[in-house]
Amino acid sequence: MSTTPTRVFAARLVGLPIFDPQGDQVGKVRDLVVSLRGATRAPRVLGLVGEVFGRRRIFVPMTRVTHVDSGQVYTTGLLNMRRFEQRPTETLVVGQMFDRTVTIRSSRVTGTVFDVAMEQARNRDWVLSRVALQEPAKGLRRRGQTHVAEWDDVDGFATKEETQGATHFLAALNEMKPADAANVIRDLPRDRRSQVVAALDDERLADVLEELPEEDQVEILAHLEAERAADVLEEMSPDDAADLIADLPPDVAAALLELMEPEEREDVRRLMEYGEETAGGMMTPEPVILPPDATVAEALAHVRREELPTSLAAQVYVCRPPLETPTGRLLGLAHIQRLLREPPSTLVAGMLDKETTYIKADASLQDVAVHLAFYNLTAAPVVDDEGRLLGAVTVDDLLDHLLPDGWRDRKTGSW
Prior knowledge:
Helix content is 31%, strand content 23%. By secondary structure, the protein is an alpha+beta fold. Among the domains are: 7-89, PRC-barrel domain (SH3 type barrels); 206-273, MgtE N-terminal fold, CATH 1.25.60; 289-401, CBS-domain (Roll), CATH 3.10.580. Strand 18 and strand 19 (389-394) form a beta hairpin. It is elongated, with a radius of gyration of 25 Å. The two termini are 25 Å apart. Residues 411-415 have low confidence and may be disordered. InterPro entries: CBS_dom, CBS_dom_sf, Mg_transptr_MgtE_intracell_dom, MgtE_N_sf, MgtE_transporter, PRC-brl_dom, PRC_barrel-like_sf, SH3_actinomycetes.
């Protein structure tokens, strides 16, 4: 590898773009794969885990890597696009080494691993050479002292650790979008995945679950205590929670519903009354709903909420009281693009879209797709026979239902 630094730390590699010889980005680095070779012999770096089109994770052998620096990784371009599957003799650096408890033999200092460095040996192989660890916090310190030691002076990697933490691995996950984090967690060994899931907070776990295939959602939820499973379901969007609960055994689903807070439980139960392949089954009951006397300033304040999905922030719905779904009669919807051009004190009710029609809860996926395409919408209101707003169906939820099973593992485009 020409002009490559002599030492590269793993945490700095994660997230770096991977380029082919023509300078086109083909993916991102997500982890390193190594082969452990005894207690003191430095592990050999076999390659990188790269994330390519459609969030597919592939193996990039180190023999295909031509250059590594602080900003990018270059390869020969000859990459196998087959999905990465970890072998029993392989170890993931970020996924399995981070947060292990190890001891520096010479000083007897014990701490948890937060990074490792690799270097190129004389035979041109890359090996792990340094270990960065952090001692537990002492006294009033928020963080413990950090140390960097030679690999052959560290004990603790050769034995299996039953209670491995996840603090530093979670720090890496939190830098990723939920969909990317979900893909990383999905590919972890079963034991390590359980440890990471246990360490995630409920809100982050809910975000990750929404991005996983149904079988992975069910498996993860099955390993949680019932009370925590109910808390995580409450943090999920009601439509995703309803879909997940519908995939559970009836007795488990009933028990979890009873443990949920009444308000969230009612939203989920109402969605479960509709067919999964209908507008009612995939709508969210929590769009931005305003009264007739709301101003542009109030509308913009609502859509600025960080937790509001982009598809729902594109428009607001003006209804008669009550303003919780199912609302009073829907008076109309207003597009944020229009509101941005009006004085803040202007009433939203004076700028309602008079042309867009509404969707009934029993509308099919095809009907919803045609409706969104015809009116160029990212979301559309769903109403009952009395014209009351039941919720909104978004284009991202529609795509989740229209795409074939296993679409997350397929090539869906370029970077």
